[in-house]
Amino acid sequence: MATTSARLLTLLGLLQSRPDWSGAELAERLDVTDRTVRNDVARLRDLGYPVDAVRGPGGRYRLGAGARVPPLLLDDAEAVAVAVGLRRTTATAGFEDPARSALAKLEQVMPDRLRRRLASIRDASASGPENTDSNVEDPAVDTVVLAALADAVRDHQGLRAYYRDEPVEIEPYRLVAWQRRWFLVARAPSTGTWAPYRVDWLRLRTPGGRRFTPMPFPGDMTEFTVREVARTGWTVHACVTVDAPPDEVLARINPTVGTVEATDDGRSVLVTGGDSVEVVAVWIGMLGLDFHVEEPPALVAHVRVLAERYARAVPGT
């Protein structure tokens, strides 16, 4: 059996790792009796850590809110996971400085052995740019706006905002990160319409909207977001006719990057988008199928330039 001090630290770490534990679960994890668990919980309370309990059979424990901040207890794998995650976040537009600061603070509260490991990860690694598949820079994430949206989702607080300079009033439900962008899944109470809103295109207005009673969402919010973004959430939207049936087109793409519909002559229409016409041209070129660009005009012009460039690149043409 571990010493009392070591066992208290282990107990505190367990309470931090999960919102709710039964006494039997804690006793099994600590290899002690239920009575010892109760005594150790009392010791934690004496030290200033609020531990809430529900008495009776199947009694449960959770770490409550209080003035004293418990020590951050991470095992080796958890510490490495956090350090690697923060290291990668330093390459995310808008989070560079907060991620570096958080990594430095994390090192300060770790025991010496883990501090040395985190320092070695920091010194031995680097993050390359996240956006290597587009000629358009990622929009910087405004952490203040992101936090405000998360609070509104939690509190069921309606929002008044400008979306691409158009006034909107929406009910926020979920934040979804995809393709290095943040999207807010929200419902327009005036029409009952659901849509994903790009966070970098939102400007919040004050005062905000009214509190609302959440409505059930018809499906999976993440799947809905990536599907709708392919249709409406890009800077450039394209409509392409592909000389192949829908099944063949869908077999060559991720279904979340666009919608595919059949035409009367056995071909398909692919509706997709991207950050720029250059990116969209690369994507449709990777289909490996004959296609015909219909819109937008800028994409038509760019594909024409590419066709001439590729033709010049082949000897004898």
TrEMBL record:
The keyword Hydrolase does not apply. The keyword Transcription regulation applies. It comes from the Bacteria. Keywords: DNA-binding, Transcription, Transcription regulation. GO terms for molecular function: DNA binding; DNA-binding transcription factor activity. Residues 4-69 form the HTH deoR-type domain. It holds the Pfam family WYL. PROSITE patterns: HTH_DEOR_1 (PS00894), HTH_DEOR_2 (PS51000), WYL (PS52050). InterPro entries: CBASS_pafABC_assoc_protein, DeoR_HTH, HTH_11, Tscrpt_reg_HTH_DeoR_CS, WCX_dom, WH-like_DNA-bd_sf, WH_DNA-bd_sf, WYL_dom. This is DNA-binding transcriptional regulator. It comes from Cellulomonas algicola.
